[in-house]
């Protein structure tokens, strides 16, 4: 099946198009009166704002979201999520076992600044150390951000939580926490936020207390590299993988090709005992009930429902509607309402059980799907996935983006035009599922994920695209 624009007058199984339809956009299959519900994926995606005839373009000029505010969710049968078939074994991969029982897909040293004031210093330390130790380990990286001072309360606690989560990542064999000295995010409090069992891989330096902070930091990084260099890849089962799910720059095909591909992968990995993390809470508004119905227990259901409503309240308290999520790129790609985007986005989790709900910065620990508190913003949510233990991020896109994150980020194109135009951004073309069939595409995708987990570089890694972003929620002093 070719993905292409359609022209007015084309006859599609007896339906004659009345207008040109851009690639990824929708047309009506039946007539709609004004205020009628419009259905896609078998679910409501909004209401018609005017009469729509069969064969006409359906988009922002004649369709509007039906989302409003918080809801009272009805529990189905918690604990009755469909059992997933684990009869087909997943091939092993080669990773780095860690002392806490988890495993890394990379063996790196990370430099995490407590505050933006020492961000450039951290980058200098990483560049010089990488030059000294090139090829000894998988890499030395500094992850800078502008926060850590002029913050209060929960906002500061969130910054500390996500940095502590990154510090315990299985992909970081060693971590230098680099402080300034006078910032709100004090080094001592940050170290306290790191579980005690993980503190052996930490080194800590306050720049104001050091003599030559570059030289002293360099010596600490040298120690960490020497320690990390003793790690070796070993054959590991699929259950040792923790994968984060993300979609960004979506289009009308994201919910038809790329996200269902991830859904089938998530089912397979969950059935094998692996961990899968789903986030972007605003991008499940309108599709949350189907996810809630797969809760492993009533406790998980209540926590997940509470998280969704808490996020809606976060919008409403700012005087903003809960439905204004699709970006200009999403709209240009054919996505009209948040319900439509959400119904496509939640397919990344397939039908795997919802096993847990995680606060921002907390670690995924259960097999199956964990729902993580974080917004939809690409950099913020992908950073949150890495901070919650994901050692790979699977990132679907219909529009494309070059950006990568602390852990290997596999970019999956929803359409062939993007994959062919941006091979230096894209790692996998999900549109092949339409031509070769889902089974063939699934096998090829599983092989690619396991190859990346075992050390194959992603497009973002090859181009040096590695960044973090912290979720800033409070006032700035």
UniProtKB/TrEMBL annotation:
It comes from the Bacteria. The keyword Transferase does not apply. GO terms for molecular function: hydrolase activity; lyase activity. Gene3D superfamilies: 2.30.130.110. SMART domains: SAF (SM00858). Transmembrane segments: none annotated. Residues 2-64 form the SAF domain. Keywords: Hydrolase, Lyase. One of its GO terms (biological process) is D-galacturonate catabolic process. Belongs to the UxaA family. This is Altronate hydrolase. It comes from Novosphingobium endophyticum.
């Amino acid at each position: 099946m070719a993905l292409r624009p359609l022209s007015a007058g084309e006859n599609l199984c007896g339906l004659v198009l009345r207008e040109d339809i851009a690639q990824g956009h929708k047309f009506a299959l039946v007539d709609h009166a004004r205020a009628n519900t419009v259905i896609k994926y078998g679910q409501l995606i909004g209401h018609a704002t005017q009469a729509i005839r069969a064969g006409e373009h359906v988009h922002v000029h004649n369709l509007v979201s039906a989302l409003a505010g918080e809801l009272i969710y009805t529990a189905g049968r918690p604990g009755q999520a469909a059992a997933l078939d684990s009869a087909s074994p997943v091939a092993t991969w080669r990773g780095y076992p860690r002392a806490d029982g988890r495993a890394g897909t990379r063996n790196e040293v990370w430099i995490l600044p407590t505050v933006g004031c020492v961000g450039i210093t951290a980058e200098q330390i990483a560049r010089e150390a990488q030059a000294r130790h090139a090829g000894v380990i998988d890499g030395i990286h500094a992850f800078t951000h502008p926060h850590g001072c002029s913050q209060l309360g929960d906002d500061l606690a969130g910054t500390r939580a996500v940095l502590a989560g990154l510090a315990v990542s299985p992909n970081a064999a060693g971590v230098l926490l680099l402080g300034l000295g006078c910032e709100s995010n004090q080094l001592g409090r940050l170290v306290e936020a790191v579980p005690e069992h993980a503190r052996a891989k930490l080194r800590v330096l306050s720049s104001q207390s050091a003599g030559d902070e570059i030289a002293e930091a360099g010596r600490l990084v040298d120690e960490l590299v020497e320690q990390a260099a003793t790690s070796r890849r070993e054959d590991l089962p699929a259950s040792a993988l923790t994968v984060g799910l993300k979609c960004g720059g979506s289009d009308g095909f994201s919910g038809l090709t790329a996200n269902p591909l991830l859904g089938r992968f998530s089912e397979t990995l969950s059935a094998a005992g692996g961990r899968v993390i789903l986030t972007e809470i605003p991008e499940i508004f309108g599709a949350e009930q189907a996810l809630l119905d797969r809760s492993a227990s009533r406790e998980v259901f209540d926590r997940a429902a509470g998280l969704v409503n808490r996020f809606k309240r976060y919008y409403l308290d700012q005087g903003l509607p809960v439905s204004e999520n699709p970006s200009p790129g999403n709209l240009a790609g054919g996505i009209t309402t948040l319900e439509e985007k959400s119904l496509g986005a939640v397919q990344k989790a397939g039908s795997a059980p919802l096993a847990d709900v995680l606060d921002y910065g907390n670690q995924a620990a259960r097999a199956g799907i964990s729902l993580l508190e974080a917004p939809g913003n690409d950099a913020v949510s992908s950073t949150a996935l890495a901070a919650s233990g994901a050692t790979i991020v699977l990132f679907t896109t219909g529009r494309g983006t070059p950006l990568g994150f602390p852990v290997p980020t596999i970019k999956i194109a929803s359409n062939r035009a993007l994959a062919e135009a941006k091979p230096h951004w894209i790692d996998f073309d999900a549109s092949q599922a339409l031509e070769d069939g889902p089974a063939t595409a699934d096998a090829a995708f599983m092989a690619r994920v396991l190859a990346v987990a075992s050390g194959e570089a992603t497009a973002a890694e090859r181009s040096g695209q590695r960044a973090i972003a912290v979720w800033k929620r409070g006032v700035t002093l």
